[in-house]
């Protein structure tokens, strides 16, 4: 079942956007997908994401800190 997506505008400093864009490219993700991945990981690590939403999407690269 697909999760509902909430769209909202996000303003980023141009330098920050370029860095995220490069990182997303290195991980074979879109900028939007990479920002969502980074937010989900930060929320999961801080214990602020409900356990049902904490599962990683199958395309996520392995997290070296979990090994």
UniProtKB/TrEMBL annotation:
A Gene Ontology biological process in which this protein takes part is:
regulation of DNA-templated transcription
Protein name per the record: Arc family DNA-binding protein
Keywords annotated in UniProt = DNA-binding
Q: TM segments?
A: none
Q: What is the lineage of its organism?
A: Bacteria, Bacillati, Bacillota, Bacilli, Bacillales
Question: Where is region (Disordered) located?
Answer: 46-67
Asked if Phosphoprotein is a keyword of the record, the answer is no
Q: Which organism is it from?
A: Cohnella zeiphila
Biased composition annotated in UniProt, kind: Pro residues: 58-67
Task: Identify the residues that the record assigns to the Arc-like DNA binding domain, covering every copy.
Answer: 2-49
Pfam families from the entry?
Arc
Q: Which GO terms describe its molecular function?
A: DNA binding
Q: Which InterPro entries match?
A: Arc_DNA-bd_dom, Arc_rbn_hlx_hlx, Ribbon_hlx_hlx
């Amino acid at each position: 079942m697909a999760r509902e997506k909430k769209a909202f505008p996000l303003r980023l400093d141009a330098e920050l956007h370029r860095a995220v864009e490069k990182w997303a490219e290195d991980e074979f993700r879109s900028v939007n997908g990479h920002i969502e991945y980074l937010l989900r990981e930060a929320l999961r690590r801080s214990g602020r994401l409900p356990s049902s939403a904490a599962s990683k999407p199958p395309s996520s690269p392995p997290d070296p800190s979990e090994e």
